[in-house]
Amino acid sequence: MEKLFDTLTFIFLLIVMILASSCVTEPYEKKIYPIEQSLKIQETSGLKFEGPSITDGSLFNLKTEQSGAYMLVVRDHFKNVISKSILDINTGDNVLSFYTNAINDGDYTVEFVDELGNVVESQKITIQ
Predict the structure, then answer these.
(1) What is the pLDDT of residues 61-92, one digit of tens each?
(2) How many C-beta neighbours within 10 Å does residue 54 have?
(3) Which of 90, 84, 48, 49 is nearest to 69 (CA)?
(4) How far is CA 32 from the centre of its chain?
(5) Cβ atoms within 10 A of the Cβ of 84, count?
(6) Which of 7, 54, 64, 85 could form a disulfide with 72 if both were Cys (CB 3.0 to 4.6 A apart)?
(7) Residue 68 region, left (φ>0) first, then alpha (ψ -120 to 50), else beta?
(8) Model pTM score
(9) In what order do the strands lie in the sheet with 68-75?
(10) What residues form DSSP beta bridges with 72?
């Protein structure tokens, strides 16, 4: 009887240890992806697109010295606002996708405006 009790105790402890070890979470590691060579910015701040003309889903890099909410403003050649978006930008490189489905093909100016209303970066691009 004592041997049966020892065996049951061993099996019970084994099951408890397996359950306890399966509940342990693994440490979270933030993955840092390398910046595509064509989007690297050597200066402390800047704006760089994949090329002078972009299509839907093209990448761009906004590098800033200060994190915060920045407004992405797209203007036509008459300086009319075509599109506005608010982006949460971190200090340093921020590689993001530029979606253009809702914008007609043509030449535009892309501006990034900080929380105080100052234009931080501006660049002319062609949307195709």
Answers:
(1) 999 999 999 999 999 999 999 999 999 999 99
(2) 20
(3) 90
(4) 11
(5) 12
(6) 85
(7) left
(8) 0.70
(9) 53-54, 119-127, 106-113, 68-75, 81-89
(10) 85, 112
d(CA 98, CA 59): 6
Per-position b or e across 101-122, b if 16+ CB within 10 A of its CB: eeeeeeebbbbbbbeeeeebbe
Tokens for 58, please give them. Answer: 């093209």
Q: What are the structural domains of the chain?
A: 38-127 (2.60.40.1930)
Which of 4-13, 32-41, 72-81 is the least confident region? 32-41
Contact 126, 106 (CB under 8 A): yes
Per the CB < 8 A criterion, the answer to whether 72 and 110 are in contact is yes
Q: Is 87 in a helix, a strand, or coil?
A: strand
